[in-house]
């Protein structure tokens, strides 16, 4: 069996999170062949893989959004779209009624157009943009509206025209662009298509857009609605949606995924990687606080630093070690370093990417400060190393810390609201003051992970998912 993994903004260019999950999935299923279709942000990352491809990975096909957006305009053509084509694209731009992906497959089928810009730069499509503008956005500058539409739709139009690798199953690890083109490939090739959502992609993009500088204020809502629209198109075509926990499944259903498609498969962790790490000891030295996290805005390192500043008032010899990549967003890394200086903090270390299993034995308390997560592997790894966690109330963190209605293990740490650095500091200090509390919570986290979140359980679930997909066959319409 050959599986095409579709990834956006993650594997193989970014370490951690979804990327680690993809590497673990391929490595754990050596009986299958994998090929990765990767959508990256910038072409400067071409070939700069952060992972060694497993032997059963046949390769990575790379596409970069900045290259798509820098394409030169083709000569405008007239009368190239049928009336049905125009109506489909009008509904797509308008974003109020979902279009069947099979119709987009017909419009953008491989080889139909001589240039990937042909449709966008046609007079027919320009008329559609003008129509939507007059109906809904005529209070905004038309030039800004046009360039916003170009930035949103040109990558989609380009990607829909590409010939994806042949596979027996198409598996997207998000909705967004890779979800739509995964559905497109499955529709064209009449092969099964499944999605795994770690976080809720459209909600993560919403949080990013609200905070962004690149999206003009008047157009933030346009961008947000667009990514929710792409999610619905992805859900529409998928045979199954696998998500990490029940709450995410409910959100996906609320956003348009048919409930009968949704299955829950938690993350799994290699607990044996941490078997050499002994339980916590009452060492009597400074409390060392650890965070295994990429230094990027969505992980909200600034809240962690502000919390640590409060912790230092009570525990002046406390130390903070931030273990994670520094390459992804250098501007944000610089802001974090400025914040350290502004707060007058000492004992803060940014290690960059390191072997986490070698660092965890030195930690007393682990912290996750993210504003968005799915089911973070970092928390499961910390539990596997007998460390308690303070997390924000995002994704599956509450369930990991406190368990669900069927879990009797107990409490493995504490959960606070996102961006509430005062509450975060309070919980860190509470754990720091009691070795017995830390030890008891760490034991709960270890037991919960062993019972529910092992690597073997995760791999068995996806082996069954692929076999089921092939058995049930393709979803999504007629062959193009």
SSE topology sketch:
Layout: E1 2-8, H1 17-28, E2 33-40, E3 57-64, H2 65-69, H3 83-94, H4 101-107, H5 123-137, H6 142-160, E4 169-172, H7 176-189, E5 193-197, H8 201-211, H9 220-237, E6 240-243, H10 246-254, E7 262-264, E8 288-292, H11 301-314, E9 319-323, H12 330-342, E10 348-352, H13 356-359, E11 365-368, H14 377-384, E12 389-392, H15 397-402, E13 413-416, H16 421-432, H17 435-452, H18 455-472
Parallel strand pairs: 1-2, 1-4, 2-3, 4-5, 5-6, 6-7, 8-9, 8-11, 9-10, 11-12, 12-13
**Main sheet summary:** 7 strands, parallel
Fraction in beta strands: 5-15%
Overall geometry comes to globular
Strand line-up across the major sheet: 3-2-1-4-5-6-7
- Which second-level CATH architecture of the largest domain applies? 3-Layer(aba) Sandwich
CATH names the topology of the largest domain as Rossmann fold
Mean pLDDT: 93
How many domains in all? 2
């Amino acid at each position: 069996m050959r599986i095409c993994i579709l990834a956006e903004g993650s594997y193989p260019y970014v370490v951690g999170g979804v990327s680690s999950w993809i590497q673990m999935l391929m490595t754990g299923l050596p009986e299958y062949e994998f090929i990765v279709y990767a959508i990256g942000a910038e072409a400067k990352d071409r070939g700069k893989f952060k992972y060694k491809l497993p032997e059963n990975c046949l390769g990575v096909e790379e596409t970069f959004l900045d290259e798509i957006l820098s394409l030169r305009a083709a000569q405008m053509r007239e009368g190239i779209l049928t009336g049905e084509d125009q109506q489909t694209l009008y509904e797509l731009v308008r974003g109020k009624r979902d279009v069947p992906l099979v119709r987009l497959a017909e419009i953008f089928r491989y080889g139909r157009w001589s240039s990937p810009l042909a449709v966008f730069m046609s007079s027919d499509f320009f008329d559609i943009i003008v129509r939507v503008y007059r109906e809904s956005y005529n209070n905004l500058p038309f030039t800004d509206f046009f360039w916003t539409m170009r930035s949103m739709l040109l990558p989609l139009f380009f990607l829909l025209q590409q010939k994806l690798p042949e596979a027996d199953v198409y598996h997207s690890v998000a909705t967004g662009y890779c979800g739509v083109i995964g559905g497109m490939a499955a529709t064209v090739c009449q092969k099964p298509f499944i999605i795994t959502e770690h976080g809720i992609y459209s909600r993560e993009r919403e949080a990013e857009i609200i905070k962004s500088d690149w999206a003009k204020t008047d157009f933030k809502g346009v961008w947000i609605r667009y990514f929710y629209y792409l999610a619905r198109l992805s859900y529409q075509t998928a045979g199954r949606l696998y998500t990490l926990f029940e709450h995410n499944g409910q959100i996906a259903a609320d956003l348009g995924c048919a409930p009968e498609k949704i299955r829950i498969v938690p993350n799994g962790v290699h607990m044996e990687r941490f078997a050499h790490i002994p339980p916590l000891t009452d060492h009597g030295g400074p409390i060392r606080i650890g965070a295994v996290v990429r230094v990027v805005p969505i992980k909200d390192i600034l809240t962690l630093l502000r919390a640590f500043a409060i912790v230092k008032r009570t525990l002046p010899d406390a130390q903070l070690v931030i273990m994670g990549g520094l390459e992804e967003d250098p501007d944000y890394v610089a802001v974090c370093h400025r914040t350290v200086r502004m707060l007058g903090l000492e004992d803060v270390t940014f290690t960059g990417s390191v072997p986490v299993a070698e660092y965890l034995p030195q930690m007393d308390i682990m912290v996750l400060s993210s504003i968005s997560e799915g089911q973070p592997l970092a928390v499961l790894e910390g539990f596997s190393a007998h460390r308690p966690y303070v997390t924000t109330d995002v994704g599956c963190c509450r369930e990991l810390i406190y368990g669900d209605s069927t879990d009797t293990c107990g409490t493995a740490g504490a959960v606070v609201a996102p961006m509430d650095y005062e509450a975060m500091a309070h919980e860190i200090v509470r754990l720091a003051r009691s070795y017995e509390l830390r030890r008891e919570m760490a034991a709960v986290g270890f037991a919960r992970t062993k019972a529910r979140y092992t690597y073997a359980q995760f791999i068995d679930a996806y082996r069954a998912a692929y076999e089921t997909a092939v058995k049930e066959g393709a979803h999504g319409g007629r062959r193009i």
